[in-house]
Each structure stands twice: as C-alpha cells, then as structure tokens.
Amino acid sequence: MLSIIPQPLQVTHDEHAAVFPLGSALVLTADTDAERSVGRLAAQRLGRAAETGPLAHVTPGERDLAAPTVVLVLDPAAGPEGSTHPERYSLVVTGEEVVVSAAEPAGLQLGVSTLRQLVTTDAAGRAVVPAVVVHDAPRYGWRGLSFDLSRHFFRVEQLERVVDLLVDYKLNVLHLHLTDDQGWRIESPSRPELAKEGSTWEIGDGPGGYLSVLEFDQLQDYAAERFVAIVPEIDVPGHINAATHVYGDLNPDGKPTDEYRGMEVGFSKLTYDLPATEPFLRDVFSDIAAITRGEHVHIGGDEVFTMDPAEFAKFVELCERVVLDAGKKVVAWQEAAHADVRPGTLIQFWDTNKKDHAPFLRAATEEGARFIMSPGNRAYLDMKYTADYALGQDWAGLVEVHDAYDWDPETVIAGMPAEAIEGVEAAIWTETLSTLDEVFEMLLPRLPAVAEVAWTDPARKDWASFRARVAVEAASWRREGRAFHASPQVVWS
Ligand code: TNX
C-alpha cells in the first residue's frame, strides 16, 4: 500500500519497476529566487526523511548528470488532466529520476510533501522511493489550523514547529487567535502598553508573553517561505478582558478589570458608546493590518452573550470598515453573520451545539458571505478523544480520529450551497494545553484527518485506508520529536 495523506486525486504505482535511490540524490531547481528557496527546503526535508542529512541542492549549471536527481520544475501542464487549480502538481518517480512539476512554486512544495511520505527503506536499509505517478490538486484552497495563543502563550520557535506540521499535510493557513481574556499576545505599535501590561499572565501560573512585531515578522517569513498564510485574529467585542485590564476607560465604570486566569468564556465585552472604544478599535485593527503580510485579518465576534444585537452589529460594521480600509479582507466567527456583513467577508462556522442556525447562515451566503468550516464536533482538536482523556474539553462532544475524518464540509449546514464553502480549518484552543507536546498530542493523529477532509475529493476518501495510512506517519512524528496520541482507532503497524 502506498501511504499518502491527504489522499491524492490520481495515483498509479508500479510495484515491479526499479525504486529511486533518494539517499544519494541531488535536488535540482531553476535559478530563480522562488525555486531556489523551494529547492533548499526540499533538500532539507528529503534529507531528514532519508536520514542522510540535507541532500545537495543544485541549479542547472551545477547539475551532475550521473547522479540520481529530484527535479523540481514549473510547468503549466502539471497536475490532473484539465485542472487549472493554482496548487496542482504532478510527481513522477522512476529508478533514475524524480520529477515534481507544478504550475506555481507552492505546488512544487506540495509535490515534495507527497514525495517525503513515500520514502521507505529497501532490504539493504537504503532510503528509496517506489515508482509512482501522482497527479493532484486540492478540493479547497483554504486549509487551515486556528491556534489559540492567549490561554497559553507559545513562542515563535514553537509556532514554527506547527508550520512544519501544516506543510507535511498540505495545510496552508495558520490562524492565530492572538487576544482573549487571558492575555493580549501581539505588540500593537500605536499602543505599546497593551501587550506589555496585557500579556503578563495566562491560565494557571505561567508567565504569559507576547509576540513583538519583529517576532511576528520572523514567523511570517518562516511561514511565507513554506506557502503558509498567517491570519491574525483580534477578538472583539467579547473575549476582551486583557484590553479592559489595561484600559479602564474601556469599561463603563472607568476601572481596569482584573487579570483573568480561568477558563470561562463570554463574561467580558466592550461598550460601543464609550469615548475610548472607537479609537481603541481603530488603533488595534489598523496596527494589525499594517503588520500583516497576508490578505486576511480576523475580527473575532464570538460568544458575546450579553450584548444587544444592534450594538453587536455596530462593532462588526466598524471593525470590518477599518480592516477593509487598510486593504485587507475580513474573517469573522459565525456570530457575525447576525450583523450585516459585507460581501467578501469570510464567516467561520464553529458552534455545532447551536440549533436552528441554518436559515440565517444560508441567508448570509445570499448576501455574498463565504464560509470556512470548523465544526466543533469534528474539527475542534482541543476536544477530548475519549471521556476520560486527561487533556482537552468536551463541550462540543468527544472527537476521536474517526469523527475528525468522517465528515463533509458541504453537509454541515443544511442547504448551504457548495460554492459558498471557501475551505476548512481545524482549531486548537489552549485552555488545557500548556506545552507544545500537549498541543501535538491533540493534533496527531487528528490534524491529518481534517487535512484529508480539506484536500481530498470525497469519492477518494476511505476510513479503512486512512487508519492504516496514518500509522505509517508515526515514524516521521517520532523522528521530528512530535508527541501524538496512540488512538486505538488507528491500525498502528
Ligand atoms: C469556544 S470557538 C470558543 C473559544 C474556546 C473554545 C474551547 C470560539 C469561536 N469560541 O473561546 O476557547 O470554545 O473549545
């Protein structure tokens, strides 16, 4: 069995043909900046998989014709017959050569992710790749993970390990939940006191922390080189205690609120009619838009339990306007669909406990909204695997690997038109997760399951095959030092 996650559109495998000797191969790209960067990273990743140390990366003038070569080449004809998807790629492996072709540099990296998963060892213990032909393209263009930095803070180096994981499973969005009741985790240049005074605690007794603009930039560089977009979220008008702690004038009584180290949600909020509120929103959303390289900014909007709908709508309208004026597109949690969101805004669906929401979510699509699907009972990877699992929460239900795998974004909301779905995001909330090991234990093996939902044509999905394929990946998790949960639903080989 060839083990590739997410399952590609087309795979053919010749078991009798010669295998490719990866351990002694060169990686060849053209001599443009983008291709050199893809080649250098590919040489590192493939070398780790082959356990040889980085492969040599060469450009045409340096090619050694005698050496087995992994050729990365841009070619508009790459991908499945007739596909025009910008991320399409093909991978052809013979005994002499590997050719990864793609329409764009991002597709070359996707092909390398597939190649990396095909590395095995032959009888002599050498790293080899079987003879295959793969033609592939994704179902959705937005394939992400939402990561909560507020409840527990994680440093750039840790977030880079998460980006590496996304790349392995062809995910291309890292959404950072940067602010909440338990801490403000991003420097806002026009309001330096916000992160300085609003980030010094977290849940439990850890020290908290925040990303400086420089660190945020370092992460964006790292992610951009790997074709992962960073989508920052400033969550308003609820989940705002870190800011109301720093600025008493955001509160009706003028007094700063206390630091909050608990796990409750829904108790904090802004007040639209206070004089300090609009300048605060303008500053933080202009700042985040200015330091963000990607196209999107997330304005939050979830779980404001005690605000009248007219006031809530004013918040959504103002934040949308500030973000759009700054040249970015808007993402918001599903509650924002209660306000009049503008066409082009992406709505992130999450709350699978709420009933009877289908009509108004469908109505939002008629106004031009598109959806990112993060159903809590499928894609919230902070949910416990089983009732007695030590980590995680269970408000959306228990999410075993099969639950994370066996769903279709198109049928989550009754009557939602398929064209309204932009993509899929898993989410990891960190109330109960304070170390990267704990985070990885919740992500693996469920994130690859959600990745297959986001990438693979439903006709090509197959649970029996997934539970065996995902086991093959455990060797790479061990090699990369990634913790994982040995779920009994997986056929560990
Ligand atoms: C719901 S999802 C929340 C978060 C919590 C999460 C815990 C969403 C938009 N709001 O504030 O951290 O549940 O699972």
From TrEMBL:
PANTHER family given in the database record: BETA-HEXOSAMINIDASE (PTHR22600), BETA-N-ACETYLHEXOSAMINIDASE (PTHR22600:SF57)
Beta-hexosaminidase bacterial type N-terminal domain sequence ranges: 3-137
Keyword Hydrolase on entry: yes
Entry's Gene Ontology molecular function annotations: beta-N-acetylhexosaminidase activity
Pfam families noted in UniProt: Glyco_hydro_20 (PF00728), Glyco_hydro_20b (PF02838)
Cross-referenced Gene3D superfamilies: Chitobiase/beta-hexosaminidase domain 2-like, Glycosidases
One GO BP annotation of this record: glycosaminoglycan metabolic process
Active site location: 303
Keyword field contains Hydrolase: yes
CDD domains: GH20_SpHex_like
Organism placement in taxonomy: Bacteria, Bacillati, Actinomycetota, Actinomycetes, Micrococcales
Keywords of the record: Glycosidase, Hydrolase
EC number from the UniProt entry: 3.2.1.52
Catalytically driven reaction(s): Hydrolysis of terminal non-reducing N-acetyl-D-hexosamine residues in N-acetyl-beta-D-hexosaminides
Family according to the record: Belongs to the glycosyl hydrolase 20 family.
Residues annotated as domain Glycoside hydrolase family 20 catalytic: 140-457
Name assigned to this protein: beta-N-acetylhexosaminidase
Origin species: Sediminihabitans luteus
This protein's GO CC annotations: membrane
